[in-house]
Write a structure and sequence with these properties.
429 residues; alpha/beta; 9-stranded mixed sheet; 6-stranded parallel sheet; binds nicotinamide-adenine-dinucleotide
Length: 429
């Protein structure tokens, strides 16, 4: 817990006006949200739900150190979260559970009239994407996809540059989730990032559920960390929209090799055939004629990178190499270090709260995503990342699966806004 002086917004809450927040899922990510909520003066934890008693115990200890008001705990079974949602005086809920629970829990929250904050990704099938949209429209209750990368300092600075026309008319983007997750998808069942080659019932934390998706689906199962920031820059669902996608998948060797190297070739998991290709490449067309290449690369050794490129008629920025080229301003035909540009276009919010935010995890972006959620809940207004964004970005998973199954055949994105994207205006980030 930090002892830093808190900025003025965090001092606004009084005993009576605090937001009452519930958390469903307090594994690694949910606990991170819990810690950040406990830092705020304008929020109070109302209830916690998790099916794992160990996680409840950790949450209870954290809460008891920081908060005196009563908290209710729910852990009876997998549907006990519905009792949490039925509580009186619950303003909002944050859902940080395995992916297959996401849509169901967010839909139930909206049905119960509780503003939902949903971890990424939002949905696994097109039907689930529509469920989010239809439930929001029918109930009038909001949901926000908690995509923290949209709030990363460099992303907000580059978005600022896009808005101020530094790159000219936008043409092409690249992004993706490029993160060696072998030691997360496979562990020893005792520590989340432990050595070992177990998963499912024998694993712990994400290996308990995430690895099954690599076993059973040849799809980009985690598109939003890359696509979310690009969608914000490209005004997707606000004057622009994702039109269609083609995807290809490589063979799968990464997880199998890791199992053999760390568990031996006689380990039962060495016989498994992982369906997910190690590199999945999707190319998306937008209605404004841009292309977006989205990569999913989580099963091979590599340094972490979300691989951003933002390119327009005047120049481009690339995160790998931290470099930029703007015609007429950069040395001719040569890359320039991006530092000076990122500082010049640093977002005002980061300038003001950057030091404080750094305490919140993931380099500060977790502070900003939570803050955006809390501020939207306070006014019961539509969030910066709404159900239409959640649906469009998450649709990459089922559409990439379909395209790969059909030898790269193009797949059309449904228009989840039903035409409203033509009228909706870009938000002020
Ligand atoms: N935005 C980010 O940077 C970021 C980082 C990590 C994880 N995530 C996302 O957060 C989510 C959770 O990931 P994690 O790393 O915390 O995983 P985790 O496995 O550590 O935590 C999931 C928790 O959900 C609980 N749970 C499962 N089913 C439940 C149910 N029916 N009711 C109540 N609780 C239930 C589990 O017991 C566990 O404690 C995932 O969607 C993941 O993609 C996002």
């Amino acid at each position: 817990m930090t002892t830093m002086v808190k900025p003025s917004w965090a001092l606004n809450g009084s005993k009576d006006s605090k937001l009452n927040i519930g958390l469903i899922g307090v594994g690694l990510r949910g606990t991170n949200h819990l810690e950040n909520i406990l830092l705020r003066k304008d929020c109070s934890i109302r209830a916690i739900c998790d099916i794992d008693q160990n996680r409840i115990k950790i949450a209870r200890e954290l809460i008891e150190k920081e908060q005196s008001s009563k908290v209710e705990y729910f852990s009876a079974n997998e549907l006990d979260y519905q009792n949490l949602l039925a509580l009186k005086n619950l303003d909002a809920v944050i859902i940080s559970t395995p992916w297959l629970w996401h849509t169901r829990m967010a839909v139930d929250a909206m049905e119960a009239g509780v503003y939902a904050g949903l971890e990424v990704s939002a949905a696994n099938t097109l039907e689930e994407c529509w469920d989010l949209v239809n439930t929001h429209e029918r109930t009038g209750t909001h949901m926000m996809l908690l995509e923290n990368v949209n709030f990363r300092r460099d992303i907000m600075a580059v978005t600022n540059m896009v808005r101020q026309d530094v790159f000219g008319e936008l043409v092409h983007f690249r992004c993706g989730y490029q993160h060696d997750l072998r030691f997360v998808k496979l562990n020893d069942g005792k520590t989340a990032y432990g050595k070992g080659v177990e998963f499912g019932e024998n694993g712990i934390s994400e290996s308990k559920w995430r690895t099954e998706h690599s076993l059973m689906r040849n799809a980009d199962v985690y598109p939003t960390h890359g696509l979310g920031p690009i969608a914000m820059m490209a005004d997707i669902n606000r004057g622009n929209r994702l039109l269609s996608l083609t995807s290809t998948a490589t063979k799968s060797i990464g997880l199998h090799n890791y199992i053999v190297e760390n568990g031996g070739e006689n380990h039962p998991n060495a016989d498994l055939k992982f369906k997910q290709g190690d590199i999945i490449t999707s190319t998306i067309e937008t209605s404004r004629g841009e292309s977006i290449i989205v990569t999913h690369d989580c099963n091979l050794p590599r340094p972490y990178s979300l691989g951003f490129r933002v390119q327009g008629g005047k120049g481009l920025w690339e995160v790998d190499g931290n470099r930029i080229y703007i015609e007429g301003k950069s040395p001719a035909h040569r890359w320039e270090d991006d530092q000076k540009w990122l500082e010049q276009y640093d977002h005002p919010l980061w300038k003001e709260f950057g030091d404080y935010a750094a305490e919140a995890g993931h380099g500060g972006m977790d502070f900003f995503v939570l803050n955006a959620f809390v501020e939207a809940v306070k006014e019961n207004k539509a969030p910066l990342i709404d159900c239409y964004d959640a649906a469009a970005w998450s649709a990459v998973t089922p559409l990439s699966e379909l395209s790969i199954e059909n030898n790269g055949a193009p797949q059309a994105f449904p228009d989840f806004t039903r035409g409203q994207w033509m009228k909706r205006q870009p938000d002020i980030w």
